[in-house]
Amino acid sequence: MASSSESDGGAVDPKVTLALRTKAKRAHTRRANKLSSLIEQAAPNEEVAVALAVLEEAYIEATTLNGKYKQTENLSEEQQLAATQWESEVSELFNGCRNAAQGYLRKEKRDKPTDSDDGPVNAKKRRIELEHQRQQVAIEEQRKLEDVRQRSKREQENLTL
């Protein structure tokens, strides 16, 4: 499905991009909080590594959207400055979480010398598994929603008869 920005020759609507950027920052913040929580709870290395990989993806998405927002036409100097500050805040949060996670993973590896060096590979596999599970849940929710809509439609038709 083509978005309105794709259909009008690639022009980017600043309001849409701003909304997407805000949504991406919220997702990034949630993931950063989750990673911090895992570290505080002394979670297994694999979980922390997966959370770090997911946070990195959220960071890339947020900064990419901010870059698109900064490239939109008719942004005032104040808006440009705010976008730069926004990205700085996101980067600071990301870097702090990444450093904490990397320190935690190094510490845990020293404390458990029998751990394998396959942590990043296992983390990626686990992230893929979790993403697949999330997609399956979303599909199931969509099916249930469609069933409810169909039942509601039938009930409405029965009431109008």
Question: Summary?
Answer:
This protein is mainly α. It has helices at 4-7, 14-40, 45-71, 77-111, 119-160.
Terminal CA distance reads: 37 Å
Low-confidence stretches: 1-10
Helix content: over 70%
In total, how many domains does the architecture comprise? 2
Largest β-sheet summary: none
Strand content: under 5%
CATH class of the largest domain: Mainly Alpha
* CATH fold-type name of the largest domain: Methane Monooxygenase Hydroxylase, Chain G, domain 1
User: What Rg do the Cα atoms give?
Assistant: 21 Å
Count the helices. How many? 5
CATH architecture of the largest domain: Up-down Bundle
Overall pLDDT confidence: 84
Which short descriptors sum up this protein?
161 residues; mainly alpha; Methane Monooxygenase Hydroxylase, Chain G, domain 1; 2 domains; 5 helices; flat; disordered N terminus
